[in-house]
Amino acid sequence: MNAPSHEAEAGIQQVKLLIEGEWKASTTQEWRDVINPATQQVLARVPFATPEEVESAITAAQRAFPAWRKTPIGARMRIMLAFQALIRENLPRIAQTLSAEQGKTLADAEGDIFRGLEVVEHACSIGSLQMGEFAENVANEVDTYTLRQPIGVCAGITPFNFPAMIPLWMFPMAIVCGNTFVLKPSEQDPLSTMQLVELALEAGVPPGVLNVVHGGKDVVDALCTHSDIKAVSFVGSTAVGTHVYDLAGRHGKRVQAMMGAKNHAVVLPDANREQTLNALVGAAFGAAGQRCMATSVVVLVGKTREWLPELKERAARLKVNAGCEPGTDIGPLISKRARQRVLDLIESGIFEGATLLLDGRDVQVPGYEQGNFVGPTLFSSVTTNMRIYTEEIFGPVLLAIEVETLDEAIELVNRNPFGNGTGLFTQSGAAARKFQSEIDVGQVGINIPIPVPVPFFSFTGSRGSKLGDLGPYGKQVVQFYTQTKTVTARWFDDASVSEGVNTTITLR
């Protein structure tokens, strides 16, 4: 944590708060550097908002809600249409910022933004997504119908690994449903998120409908406990997600918490060898493994254990470099602390008896000697009681486990407490059907290593990877950001005959 002097701040961008449509400089004494993970260059300083500033943001959202909830659906939809057009227009510029602050390759940064853009596009369908239901004449001249109405002020807490996609999972769907929103981006890489927020204002989001505060645990706790916040969306680590879910739930909030993972890919001997190996390498090492949907364990069934040398060879060919450099496959980890954690876990794997087939600990990147780099790392002979298996590594490390049958593979995956995603590689429809039926994981890929659904479906991680019953985007998030009101109505005209007093509960 930094408390920089005025002189130290000169020439370095200070990230602003957004409160009631105005960009405000924080009065806090607590700041954090936003650091390029490939160079250690300080890109900006982000404030840890004061309690008064958080209160002001929530108050602004509460004040804006009555008018915004009455704004016609068509008007809200047209703002989303303008927003998606602006994101498309500015995508290369935002990707440059995202790559610099997060470390992703430019191509992966563009993908990060695009997957969020797809949710904004889906928000443009709110006219049909927010429809209620109607049944005529459910009793004698009685109609029943439902209304999907906004719930009020919502909050979003987003992680460092997808500073574009995850915020775009949250605030566009919340506000297009008629809610107002307070966003807390990751303090490690908020710059690309703020660029997207600027575009949302340019698209026509009114003052107070979208607000932004920055900070750490104190700000998170304030959002989870404030009486005006009705719902909290969270994506991040299991430890923080569990805290958010418990704290916000105790204070009467709706909560959705997408958390940690240990994603397995099961490979059967009849799988397409070329396509499978390429998919495994991309899914395990892309984004330096800093994806909650990364493939971190490959379960080799039967003779596919013979594929390990080729898997190692392909992983070893990946180019480690700064994300801005052409041809880069793997960029740096987000911070020195994150890098050290990954290195410690690799050491633990060696200590506990796993075989280190490919060692990425001492990778050298000329011109970027200070970068937080770890090269592709591959373990075999891994057992399920090792730390490298029981903990989410969140780095470019792939574990190989060998079993003899598909049944053994399914049992192994189902024993793991996480349930974010899993994949099966096969050319057998019967095996695929068995796998998708019996596997206890919320998102399943068949010959797809990272089975994140497109936005008109919902993200459906399960078990230890998710708290709350409704996932982000798709139809489920409309349920999350709205409340259902049921109306039962009966109308009389002058010709109606009085039925007298009825003291039963039956509608006639």
TrEMBL record:
Protein family according to the UniProt entry: Belongs to the aldehyde dehydrogenase family.
Residue span(s) of domain Aldehyde dehydrogenase: 23-487
Official protein name in the record: methylmalonate-semialdehyde dehydrogenase (CoA acylating)
Keywords, sorted A to Z: NAD, Oxidoreductase
Record EC number: 1.2.1.27
Superkingdom field: Bacteria
Entry keyword NAD: yes
Single Gene Ontology MF annotation: methylmalonate-semialdehyde dehydrogenase (acylating, NAD) activity
Gene3D superfamilies in the record: Aldehyde Dehydrogenase, Chain A, domain 1, Aldehyde Dehydrogenase, Chain A, domain 2
Keyword presence, NAD: yes
InterPro entries referenced in this protein's UniProt entry, alphabetically: Ald_DH/histidinol_DH, Ald_DH_C, Ald_DH_CS_CYS, Ald_DH_N, Aldehyde_DH_dom, MeMal-semiAld_DH
Any coiled-coil regions, as ranges: none
A GO BP entry: thymine catabolic process
Upper taxonomic lineage: Bacteria, Pseudomonadati, Pseudomonadota, Gammaproteobacteria, Pseudomonadales
